[in-house]
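[Discussion] Sanity-checking designs against the backbone

I'm trying to build intuition for which residues belong where. Below is a structure token string of 116 positions. I'd appreciate it if someone posts a full sequence so I can compare it with mine line by line.
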């Protein structure tokens, strides 16, 4: 683990993991990512902003303000729900997610997901 600069050393969030994947695995991951990214982008709604290229928080705030302004101009009711899903990935059922992935992926890739 590599400590993050300016973070308290007694906090687990203050460290970055070190990747020890072999070179072949890294190349394989890049090839797979390059092939599936267009498919993923085509299937994710344009309103999904988290962890996407050219979809920043600022864009989402701008979109929200536009929707609120439009609703108020038309004298309609405007409601919103804001959820804080911090550390959501840590709460995902990883075994279930891997099971689902293995059931829909080609055998070559699903074999890659198995522990050594």
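Best answer:
Here's mine. Compare freely.
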């Amino acid at each position: 683990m590599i400590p993050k600069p300016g973070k308290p050393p007694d906090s687990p969030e203050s460290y970055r993991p070190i990747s020890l994947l072999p070179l072949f695995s890294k190349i394989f991951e890049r090839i797979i990512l390059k092939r599936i990214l267009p498919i993923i982008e085509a299937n994710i709604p344009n309103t999904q902003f988290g962890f996407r290229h050219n979809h920043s928080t600022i864009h989402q705030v701008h979109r929200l303000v536009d929707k609120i302004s439009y609703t108020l101009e038309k004298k309609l009711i405007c409601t919103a729900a804001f959820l804080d899903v911090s550390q959501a990935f840590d709460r995902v059922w990883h075994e279930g997610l891997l099971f689902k992935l293995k059931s829909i992926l080609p055998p070559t890739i699903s074999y890659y997901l198995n522990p050594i």
